[in-house]
Amino acid sequence: MSGDDAGAGPPRVDPLLLVAVVAVGIAARLASLHVSPLPYNTDAFVFASSAERLLAAGGVPLDPTAAAAPAADQYLFVTLLAAASALTGVAPLFVAQTVVACLAVVPPLVAVVFVRDVTADLPASHGRAAAAFAGLALAVEGPFLFRTMSVSGEVYGLAVLAVLVLALGRAHVTGSRRWLALAVAAGATMPVAHNLSALVAGLVCTTLIALAVARSPTCRRLVGGAIGTLGFWALTVGYYEAIDLPKADTAVASLGLFAAWLALVVVLARWLDASSARVQRAVPLAAFAGGLAVLAANAVVALYPARATTAPLLLCLTLPLFAPLAAAAIGVPRLASDRGIAALATVLGPLAAIGFALTAGSTPRYLDLAVRATGFVHLGALVAAAAGLAALVHRRPHLGRVAACCAVVALLASAPLPFLGLQAYPFEPITHPETFDAATFATTHLDGTWAADDHVALVADNYRSADVARAPVTAWLRGDGPPPDCPTVARDSWTTVGAPTATGPVRLPRSTYESWVMNGSVVYDGGPDRVVVRWAPGTCRAGVAP
């Protein structure tokens, strides 16, 4: 045992609350199936294709060079998809969304446990309400829902990281070897679970171990913490270096800057842990406000060249989330305790990845890192928000209830974010069956390179490594080139919502589109939604348009 609250046992968690969190979380992440039976995002086709190869091979090859071997940082997730398909008899492409929905409820469940721990000194009704807020908020909050509705190894990584942090926090409080063993097991799987999750797990665990050692500085803790931290980083970096994972170069390319951000966040975490409540509230509030300010600034001017600006609709539904973030700042002092430092580390650890991405360079790779790293902040931030609201309701009931209502409204208002499509994002998350069928037809029946917009090209390339080029269509839509004079998958939606490009959707006049289609040979017609394959004898210019 150690620390200020180690002596008391953890509060009981209401089983009905856990059932409600699981039910709402899974239902929210299956909502996309009402729009399309296909998985939510285009990355899903990569994982489904890998799972199909595993099933065809009849096992998981340990040789990474084998034809059926998944990507080196996707072994566990792809194997899980293949196993779920084999058990249910449902093809990987159609079971993937359900698998992800089940994985995605792990962080909300861990949030419920964290909140019960940090509100143990409040009336039981306050603790239960706060736990319900945290769990259900993570189940429906728009940005987190978007991230965990997407079929990706990242959702698997988020689930494993939540278990890892919970186990480390429990091991610190109780001294239990069982919790420590669970933490070691979860940490050992991170490199093969997902590359970004492993990176953030290292940041979070380093922060958590530093806080735990600083709170109870014994030689045994110091040595054990150092071995655990260095062992995790050695395993992760060594594995990615051994397999030469290209995506791992994001941090390795600027290793000094990355190490500096890690050191800064560790020092910041320890300083906050020992600071006054006023400082503990002010610093996170400034960080959260700064993040939203960056999002708003990107609506005015693209902070990353050749990338899309923040869409007005996305901004309008995201900015109100400052209400729960302000509540999180109020709740941070409650995380500055032995039982709370695990949640505190999940707030601060990912900030090192975000800060690194914002300062390392203005390239698409770092933009992707910054956006994806924010997904790991939600668990700790909403735990802090729930604790802050519970404490505020206890001290000042009227103000606390008003603040809670504002936070709930903001969270619910953000829930539609995953379904906004090209109105909010420079890409289409949802793939409709007619689009998939047209891409499959082109892949199967067209010889040589064919052309398509970004979305169709991603679907075809991710699922069947199709010989498809985006440049001819993108250049034409932007007015930078002539119409494609080669086999092309075209969509009537180019004239309505537009075609996706890296800088946002681009529309064609209907007369221009229809004239171009009619001047070629339509060899495939997808029906009422007008996805067609237009054949022309020319050769597509391969490559990806900027």
TrEMBL record:
Domain of life: Archaea
Keyword set includes Ubl conjugation: no
Keywords in alphabetical order: Membrane, Transmembrane, Transmembrane helix
Transmembrane intervals: 15-32, 98-115, 127-146, 155-173, 193-214, 221-240, 252-272, 284-304, 310-330, 342-361, 373-393, 402-425
Protein name from the UniProt record: Sodium/phosphate symporter
Source organism (scientific name): Halarchaeum nitratireducens
